[in-house]
Each structure stands twice: as C-alpha cells, then as structure tokens.
Amino acid sequence: MAPKKVVSTKIDPVQEQMRLKFRAKCLFRALGRLVLENRYWLIEGVDQYEGLDDVKRRVEQAVRGKHKKKQLLNINDKALLNKSAEERTTQEQQYLYRILGGLKCFKRYPNHVKKKLAAATYFKYYGPNRVIVRQHHEAHAMYFVVTGEVTVSQLVFDELLQRYVSVDVGTMAAGDMFGEVSLLHNIPRTATVTTNGHCELLALMKEDFKNVLQESLQKQWDEVRRAMSAFTYFDSFDEVAQREGCIVAKMKSYKRNDTVLGDGVGAQNFVYFVLSGRCQMIESLQVIVSKHLNRNHYTLYDPYIPEEKSEKDLEEKWFAAYKNKRRSTFEDKSEMDAATSQYRPSKGVLRSSRSLKTENEKKGEPSLVTIVDVPPSSEQISQNFLLPSQHRQSVRVSMAVPADSQEDSKNKTEQPRSADLRTYFMQVCLFNPGSTFGFGENMRDRRIVALTPVDCMLLPKVWLLQRNPANIWTRIQHYLEKKIPNKRKLFKEFVAARRWQEYRDQVVSDVVARSKAVNFTTVHDVPYSIRLEEMLDY
C-alpha cells in the first residue's frame, strides 16, 4: 500500500491576525452604518439632554416628544426586535406577540401564525427617499409597513423614447406588505419600492418565510387563481398579468342582508366579481301621492332628472327650426294686442317676464328686472291708432324684482308637502354567480344588498382598465347601463303595479259585496302553523 500524504493544517499567525483585524473592521463599519440609519428613532430614548452644544438634536427631541403617543412601538420594543431570533427568550417572544398581534399588518393572520411572526420578524427603519427593494434584484426578505408610506414603481419600455422609464404603480401605507411574490415563486423582484418619508418596517427573512407564511400565502394565492379562472375575461391574461392580479385582488364575504355597495359602504374604486350567492340592486323612489275623484295619482319627484324633450325642441335648439315662423307670429300678435287693448281691464296683468342686464349687473351686482305689460290709457290708444302699423308700440313698465323672492316662490311651488311625499323601494335587478358590477354605473339612490351569503373577488378598477383586451371592460359597462332600468322606467313599472293592485282589490270587494252568504270565519280559526308560515313568507 502506498503511504498516505499528511496535509499540514498549520495556520500562519500573521494571516490569522490580518483576518481578525479585517473582520473587526467590517463589523465596526456595519455598526456605524446601523447607528447612522437608526439615529432618527434612537434619540427617543434620551429623556433628558443637558448641554447647549448640539441645538439641532435638542430641537429634534422636542419635536418628536409631541408625537410619542402616536407611536406603535417604543424604543425598547424596537431594540428587542433587532435582537437575533435565536437569542430571544420565551418571555420576550410572548411579549412581542402581545405587541405585534394588535398591529394592522398582522390582523389578517390567525393567532398561531402571529406567534411565529413575532418570534421571527426584525425591525427596520428607512429614511426618506430610500430604496427598500429594487426591481430585477434577488429577494432576501418580505416587509410589513408599520408606519410611513412607500411608493411602488416599475420599469416600462417607452416606445417613443426607446428606453425604460420608471412608472409609479401605487402607494402602500401602514398595514400593507410587499415582497412576498418573489419569495413565493422564487423569482426576482417585480417592482421597486421607495420610501416617501420616515418609514418603520418589520422584515421577515427568506428562511423564516418558508416556515411561517409560505403555506398560508400559497392558499390565498390558489384561492384567487381559482376565482380568476371562473371568469373567461382573464383567459387572455399572460402569466405576469395573472400574478399581478393575485397580488392586488381582495376576497370578501358578506352575510345575508349586508350592504355590498352603496350608501357610503363598499370600495368605490374596485370592481366586484360575484363568486357565489345572489345580490339584488334596490333603488328608492320619491313619489308624490295625490287623490282626485277617489283615485290615487302618482307623480315622480326627483329634481335631478331632466325634463323630457321632444323632437321639436331638439330641432329648435340645434337646427334653429321654427325661428322665422315664431317671429312672424309674434309681429301679428303684437298688432292684434295693440288693436284689442281697449277691451281689456285697466289693471296690470303679468304676461311675460324676462331678465335684463342693468348697470348694476354689469358692475358685478346681481339684479333681475321683470317686464310687466300694462294696458295703455285711452289717450295713448287714440295716438297709437293714428300711427302706421309698423310704428305701433305697446306701453311697458319696468319693475325691479329681487331675485331671492322669485327663487323662494319657485321653490315653494316645486317642493311638495311632506304628507304627500312618500318613499318606495324597488328591486332593480339581480346579480347571480358569474356577474360583475362596480364599473362606474349610476349608484344614486341605489344600493346592492346580499340576498344570500355572498363571496366576491375585488380587483382595482384602474388595474383592469390598464389591461383591457378587446375593450372588454368598457363593453361590460355599456351593457350594464343599457340593461339596468333608469328611474323613469322603474316609476312606470311602479304605477302599473299600483294600478293592477287597485283593480284587483276593487274586483274582490265587488265580488264580496254581491255575495249573500255570511262568512263567520275569523283569523283564530286558522291553525298557528299556517299563520307562522305566512308571516315567514312576508
């Protein structure tokens, strides 16, 4: 057998000393960088500062002292979160669980996940205009925003400039998280995140992410993927677009009779995709009920609905039709009024009113002048008949009427009495599984209520409009506006239903009045079970 070679393991003491010096130098530099980065929040621990040398530090301390009550984490909590996760004791982990469990960014997770997050997260501070993650770089951690605001941007190739430009995608505030997509799919960063001001974050490293959040986030991701696959609108989306949709999507559940959208409830900038359950759109109608000849008459009261215009009005407005005809009839009428004015009473009669621009109005002061036609006297009539027909004029008197008084009188005539004004609620349409709404349709006096337990997927409207293949979202919006009836159609259906109900009640009352048999049956003769079922039906 050949003799074995003995490898010398002797270490040069000079090289070992150089290595230790270099390591100490690197550690000292890292410590200096940490102090410089965290000097903004480290000054919170200084309760009293004596001396007049550093005035700037005293001013910063005084300013930050006013905002101490608003801070979610104090200096001891931040120092504990900077401690290595392996060195944290059981008591420290329980304390962090009580502190971090109530934060907005951790409320979405169950208690057992919160305990693991409290034991593995680290505190990070970034000053203004600092880049936290950069697009196309390797991912090492995910982040939770505790305080502050960050801007998310992406590099997009500009065809006009022939180069990549940075485009802001959105902003994130306290309670949001970012960076989980790259860790979940093991891909480079998909966007760049930059701080807008002083930001405090909690970081979860890549190794801890696999043990704590990967399983729960994978379930949420698969749930959104299944929801998007239920709609054919997203079949044309590529892998990147579907991944972005899973990031920005929100899953929400509603109980029966919960308001999904309307009356100040719901996300106005999101589009709703119904996954399960049924919703109904309800609209309120204000109706004026008047009685004439023992019959109810209904009038829709809505000051926002414009008056219906005929084709004649449109032709007159846009094509100046009937203009010459009206002018000739007006001249003939003025001659006739001048000739027959002697047979009219002497009291002034208001025949026409119009607004004239006076000198005060030209100066900027509001004024309204009403023209009142007053019949002329006998002397004026005789003089007027002596003149040719083209020189005959009617005598008019200008009367200044305040604008407020006319507006008050107009409002009095338009506003009905509270006793005659009634509010009715009508079902406009139904939304079944596979339906969608929230594209910007008219929601005035409308609300969408859940008839059964409903599950919805919410996607931002701006994000959908940016990815609009074949103009699909605009076509859906036009379809909804066409199919959902407006207030006038609903009012016609309401009147028709009321007329049918009144006719039916009248027929029943006539039949009962003609019958001679006496019915001694009362409500007490009906079994309780049947009465309970009828009450449930209502």
Query: Count of DSSP helices?
Result: 19
Determine the fraction of residues in helical runs and give it as a percent range: 40-55%
Distance between the termini: 101 Å
How many strand segments? 19
Task: Output the structural class.
Answer: alpha+beta
The CATH top-level class label of the domain at 72-212: Mainly Beta
Calculate the mean pLDDT score and round it: 75
- Strand percentage lies at 15-25%
Describe this structure in words.
The protein has 538 residues and is of the alpha+beta class. Helix content is 40%, strand content 22%. The chain has helices at 13-37, 39-42, 55-65, 75-81, 90-100, 111-120, 180-185, 206-212, 214-229, 239-248, 311-319, 323-340, 359-363, 378-386, 403-414, 461-466, 472-483, 487-514, 528-537; strands at 122-126, 131-133, 141-147, 150-158, 163-172, 177-178, 192-195, 199-205, 250-254, 259-262, 270-276, 279-292, 295-300, 369-373, 396-400, 421-431, 436-437, 446-450, 454-460. Strands 10, 12, 13, 16 and 18 form a 5-stranded antiparallel β-sheet that branches. It has a 4-stranded antiparallel β-sheet with strand order 1-8-3-6. A 4-stranded antiparallel β-sheet has the order 2-7-4-5, with no helix packed on it. Helix 9 packs across helix 10 (239-248). The longest helix is centred in the last third of the chain and has 28 residues, at 487-514. The N and C termini lie far apart (101 Å).
